[in-house]
Design brief:
This protein has 7 helices and 5 strands; from the N terminus they run αααββαβαββαα. It has 196 residues and is an alpha/beta fold. A hairpin with a 4-residue loop joins strand 4 and strand 5. Helix 4 packs parallel to helix 6. 22% of the residues are buried.
Amino acid sequence: NGLTQQRIAERAALRKSFFIFQVKTFRMPHFGALRRRLRWMLAVGCAGWLLICASRPVSAAAWQTRALPHFYLHYQPVDERVTAMLAERAESVYARITGEVGYAPPRKIVVYLCPDADCFRQRQPSPNKLPEWAVGAAYPGLSRIVMRSALTRKEGQTLNPLDVFTHEVAHIVLEQALAAQGGAPRWLSEGFAMYH
């Protein structure tokens, strides 16, 4: 009961700290015009924020996640079929590569499937973005893969998402396995990933 009263008191104190957002309880009897102006500014600010949020592309809010034993696959609805195909094969790819290296990453690998080049650039955590022709990137320190799920007709090429996925998983596993030694030399990392 004492713990409950303490929580009630903490919540009441927290509510009081948010007085700025409760304009109607903010009383200034001699400054009615200022109070109206503050309400108007709050209303305009909220409306502006809603417009900004509403104007964002649908794809920014449409991410879905599929959790697997060793992966989180983040994708957009347009990539449901690609995600289902990867989900079927991801664990066998993981078992084959970790078996060959003799190392299993300590946490799940986060994979972003990007349906277009803009998404691919936005999901790259580095400020130095990859060249336009790149279709996948592995970030071993973050245990993250960012990859294209398809190419457009305008780009004039085809893409096999399973090949890209396998290549990037190979980078993650090998680089993490050799992290204590400073990582794998570039030629070894690329050669191992190309082999798969």
